[in-house]
Specification:
With 278 residues, this protein is of the alpha+beta class. It is built from 5 helices and 7 strands.
Length: 278
């Protein structure tokens, strides 16, 4: 009787122990799988972040050799334009500003060739043609010069031939100019006078005019504008490249955050399913 009563108890206790051990094994397996999935997801996220930073670092815009040469060329053009402005300002703009020659009407009463020839650069002597004019509106007479630079010469010659050793050729050249001037005698013509600085001189043509000043400033201005435009275009290209890189890195960061949130939702769903099965 004791054997019969004990045998059923042993037969019922063994399956219960087996079922409990199987449930514990399943829970440990699920925990291990969950732990490995979490570790893999973290590694993926870390790899994604590292790859993104490396990608952004690799995508950072770097100035190429062509851009550096273009910038160097632009600054060189601007430097040369400033130097040209300085030269043109000294040689053309300043004499134009200081010039006080005003238009007047002159009458040519007399021309003469001096008997004493003038020294020409220490090489030879040349004849000197002088022209005396009277300015209308005043009873004073003055010597006629060709332009502003001729006023500052030590002599008062209207025309000097080029330096050469042929005296006969020099005389013939001066006589031709004298005949042309004599044809204008007693006729009024336009001239320029400066009664304050040079009361005894008038000039026939102005050398430093507004047209010449503008023409002299044209080329430095074009070079300065071209250099600044070249540098500006290169800088604009680099700025647009940086903006495109920032936009791409920003979009990549948004994708990484969306993936991370999806992985987190997946882990939560997996936990809930594990709890429901247990």
């Amino acid at each position: 009787m004791f054997l019969n009563t004990a045998s059923p108890r042993r037969s019922f206790s063994i399956p219960i122990n087996i079922n409990l051990h199987g449930a514990r094994r399943r829970q440990t397996r699920h925990r291990e799988i969950h732990h490995t999935s979490v570790m893999q997801e973290q590694e993926r996220s870390q790899r994604g972040d590292g790859g993104g930073t490396e990608g952004t670092r690799s995508q950072m815009p770097t100035s190429s050799v062509g851009e550096e040469r273009a910038i160097l060329l632009g600054f060189t053009m601007m430097a040369f334009s400033v130097l040209m402005f300085f030269v043109v300002g000294i040689t053309t703009v300043k004499p134009y500003i200081d010039s006080c020659w005003k238009e007047a009407s002159c009458v040519l009463p007399q021309t003469d060739i001096l008997e004493e020839w003038v020294d020409c650069r220490g090489v030879s002597t040349v004849p000197c043609l002088t022209v005396t004019v009277s300015v209308t509106g005043s009873n004073e007479s003055a010597f006629l010069q060709f332009d502003e630079d001729s006023v500052f010469l030590p002599n008062e010659c209207f025309y000097l031939p080029k330096c050469q050793m042929d005296r006969k050729g020099l005389q013939e050249e001066v006589q031709k100019v004298k005949k042309w001037v004599d044809s204008q005698l007693k006729n009024s013509s336009m001239c320029f006078s400066d009664q304050k600085r040079h009361p005894n001189h008038v000039i026939l043509n102005r050398k430093y005019t507004l047209r010449r000043v503008l023409f002299g400033l044209l080329w430095p201005g074009l070079m300065l504008g071209g250099g600044s435009l070249l540098v500006g275009l290169v800088k604009l290209t680099q700025c647009l490249a940086r903006l495109s890189t920032d936009m791409s890195s920003y979009s990549g960061g948004g994708r990484r955050t969306s993936r991370y949130s999806q992985g987190k939702m997946y882990r939560l769903l997996q936990r809930s399913s594990m709890q429901s099965t247990s």
